[in-house]
Every structure is written in C-alpha cells, then in structure tokens.
Amino acid sequence: MKTMPPIKAAIFKVLFLLIFTVSFSSCGEKSKRENSKKEAFNKSKNEEIETSFFIEMGNAMNSMISQSQIAQQKSSESKIVEVSKKIADHQNQLLLQVNEMANKKLIIITDISAAHKDELLELNNTNGSSFNKAYLSSMTTALDQQIKLFEQISKRTNDQLILKLVLQYLPEQYQLLRETEQIKSEFN
C-alpha cells in the first residue's frame, strides 16, 4: 500500500475543511434568510392590524363627533346635551392623538365612511323623543365598538404608543358608556 506524500495530504485536509466550512456557513445564511422573511411577514401583519385599527377608529370618532354635534343642536334634554358635549370633546381629543400617530405611520384617516353617513342622515331625520332614543342608542353602540377596538388592538400589538393610548382612553370610554347607558335607561 502506498502512502500519500505529506504535501498532498495537507492540501486534501485544507480542501476538505474549506468545503466543510462553506457548507455550514451557507446553511446558517439560509436560516437567517428564512428568519428575516418570517420577521418581514410578521411586521407587515402587525402593520396591517394597526392600519385597520387607525382607520376603523377614525371613522367611528368622526361619526360620533358629528352625531354629538347634531344632538347638541336638536335635543331639548339638558342631560343629553351635556353628555353629547362630553362625548364630542373626548372624541376630538382622541381623534387628534390618533391622527398624529397615524400620520407618523403614513396612514391617512379619511372622513366618515358611507355606513356612518347613513347613520348620520337617519339620526338627522328624527325629531323629539325618538331623536333622543336614537342618539343614545347610537352612542352606546359606538362606544361599545370603540371599547372592543381598544381591547383587540391591545392584545394584538406591541407598539408602545398604541398601548399608551389604550391605557389613557379606555377608562374614559367605559365611563362615557356607563353614563350614556344610564341616561338611555331614563328615557326608556
């Protein structure tokens, strides 16, 4: 049996180690690429969730502000006028903050959606006690929907600014909902 000269053996060892090293490093790059694809997908999913939140919240706030302004003009009941002012003020503050956050994320919140416009027209066409009942019913539904939106986004996002917004406004939303439901029960 012939032995290999030491130079050839050294060349084969170096060549083998080089192939071995390249193979393992390319495997690591593949897993890094897969991880970066997963991260990009998760980021776009989170961005989609946040975008949906901002748009839905913006539409609801615009609608509530418009309905509350109509209630301030049409209602003869002082309790309804008072709660409608609170709701409008609260929603305006919230809208300013949500718009600011959305603009930073390059999200544009448009005016009231078609569904909310229909609600607004329907409310505007009612009078007297039927107006009061319709307004209070609409506000309790809208506040309840906003609370659900806040709760959903708080579970689905890690964005600290959104979570801070939820912590700041969710207790006030519950308070307005309780107050509106109490007035609604007085008129039923």
From TrEMBL:
Annotated InterPro entries: DUF4142, Ferritin-like
Pfam families: DUF4142 (PF13628)
Signal peptide: none
Residues annotated as domain DUF4142: 59-182
Protein's name in the database: DUF4142 domain-containing protein
Annotated organism of origin: Flavobacterium frigidimaris
